[in-house]
Amino acid sequence: MGEARVLRLGRLSRVVVWRAWRRVAVALLVALLILLASLALGEAALSAPQWLAALRSPGSGAGLILWQLRLPRTLLGALVGAALALSGWLLQQVMRNPLASPDTLGVTAGAATLAVGYLVFLAADVGSAWMPLAAALGALLAVLLVMLAAWRGGTTPLRLVLMGIGLSTLLSAVTTFVLVSSPLTTTLSAYVWLTGSVYGGNWSDVGWLAACFGVALVALMPLVRLALLAPLDDGLAVGIGVRVQWTRTLLILLAAGLAGIAVAWGGAMAFVGLVAPHVARRLLRQPGAAQIAMAIVVGASMTMAADLAGRLLFPPLDLPAGLFVAAIGAPFFLGLMMKQAR
Amino acid sequence: MATLSANRLTLGYQRQAILRELSLELPEGRISVLVGSNGCGKSTLLKALARLLTPWQGQVALEGEDIRQRPTKAVARTLSLLPQHPVAPEGISVRQLVGLGRHPHQSWLAQWSEGDERAVEQALLRTGLDDLSEQRVETLSGGQRQRAWIAMAVAQDTPLMLLDEPTSFLDLTHQMEVLELLVSLNRDAGKTIVMVLHDLNLACRYADHIVAIREGRVHAQGRPQAVITRERVKEIFQLECRVIEDPFFHTPLCIPFGKGAA
Q: 10-residue block means of pLDDT along chain B (262 residues)?
């Protein structure tokens, strides 16, 4: 705690841990560096002066690459990572389980089923513009189903996780069935989506996702205190006046919505939602608003870095970011766990 | 001051009724102890009194009003609860744990007022934890940990405190320590205390009012001298015993006999 300060202004009072927020600021700087690197590096190699010139003239050829290709794509990646990380952090709190992630509650599987279904059955007729909507809808439907199935005068984290795993498995089977029975070209694009990619992200995508993320953040504000109390046993929580079922439902819906929109635009790279909160907790022990901010920044950095790696490592291939989220994230995650176990 | 009562309370788990039309009024400003054999429903009753369980029929009344009709946060300013096996969030310090008790007094605007700070400080002093306040809860001994949980309830600053077996898993010294602490909260701060205890003799010594539960009903209640008699103990616990007067504290002292030894 060390540098915890209490701010009081009339009725308003807050505990602010400066050291924690300083660390968040540092992480934000790192994220900005990754963003800049992502703007600077890519298939079209630009020298530093060329790059600066391009930055100033969005109309030029190089400017177009920067402003219409690299920047929106990078920002889209950042937003996808941020939303998944926040979703994962919330779920790990609410489920009282460090292994919880948007995958656990069937969110990703639900999004995948409807998105793939859309690609296979509808995209040819109505175009692929509505796919994010299908994915978000799938995510929300799946989580509602899980909550309904787990409801017995209320839900418990354990029942939710079990129902989530069951539904995920079922939905994956459906997705695979649809994939296998679809034409090869559709299968390929569906497969890339399933891995998770922000390839071809444009400003309209960024605008939509940013708006949704903003709404979710505003909705989260009054819930932060309750999210921090979510790990308490139900008995203790009720004892200090928390409306446990109501809070749990709200937080899960919020987390599902966040993961839904992230997956809708970024594909099924929900692994970020598992790893980023862990990294954030390593960097900031103390649960609090700063830890949430940290998770968001870490998530954004992870996807931006993964997208960058996908573009750079195996030219001329432009590999989906989801691949590198897993390829870099998984060993890192294992290392983290091994260190913690010791 | 706050009154708490149960009115023809029926409830249970799944389809099995545990409490059957149980009515009970808990005396204000006193220490009441619920006793009874395992599975008689005393813990269930305590949970129902703390609104953790929804009655099938009947109601729990807090200050004469159905407890479920009042906002749970308002209830939490009147009544605090220490469950049987509370689990502290990982890595939390004693001071932070005690601070959790302030939740019902906080709002989005006021998250850490001077009142919160004072209440936590006092709770730590009162429970003798001021020197341990920065320690992590998991590093505490069993007795210290139980005091930390009681401190959290004290910080909640409620006239009514409910505790489910606050002395289980503690050695005799620490059982006494916890009970003395609760008595001092009752005597000095006027708290109404309702708790489940297993040790009859300690219950007799510290309770003003004993409520004996048998098969989901109130079997007997009153002063320890009135409730803990040889016949009653046999009815409540199906146990042969002799009850003598404690030579030092003059409360009933129950000496259990085996089934054959009587």
A: 89 89 95 93 94 94 93 95 90 92 92 91 93 92 92 95 92 91 94 94 95 94 94 91 92 84 48
Pairwise CA distance, residues A230 & A96, whole Å: 7
* A229 near B CB under 8 A: yes
Nearest C-alpha of chain A: how many angstroms from B106? 10
A235–B81 C-beta distance less than 8 A: yes
- pLDDT, tens only, A152-180: 888 898 899 999 999 999 999 998 898 88
What's the domain range around A137? Answer: 74-341
Structure token digits, residue B85 = 């096996």
- The 3 state secondary structure assigned to B195-246 is EECCCHHHHHHHCCEEEEEECCEEEEEECHHHHCCHHHHHHHHCCCEEEEEC
Do A13 and B108 make contact, defined as CB atoms within 8 angstroms?
Answer: no
CATH for B1-78+162-262 is 3.40.50.300
Chain A window 266-295: which residues touch B at a Cβ cutoff of 8 Å? 285-287
Amino acid in position B223:
R
Could A238 and B100 be called an inter-chain contact, meaning their C-beta atoms sit closer than 8 Å? no
Residue B201, CB-side half-sphere exposure with 13 Å CA sphere = 17
A236 CB within 8 Å of a chain B CB: yes
Domain of residue A236, CATH code = 1.10.3470.10
Q: How many domains is chain A built from?
A: 1
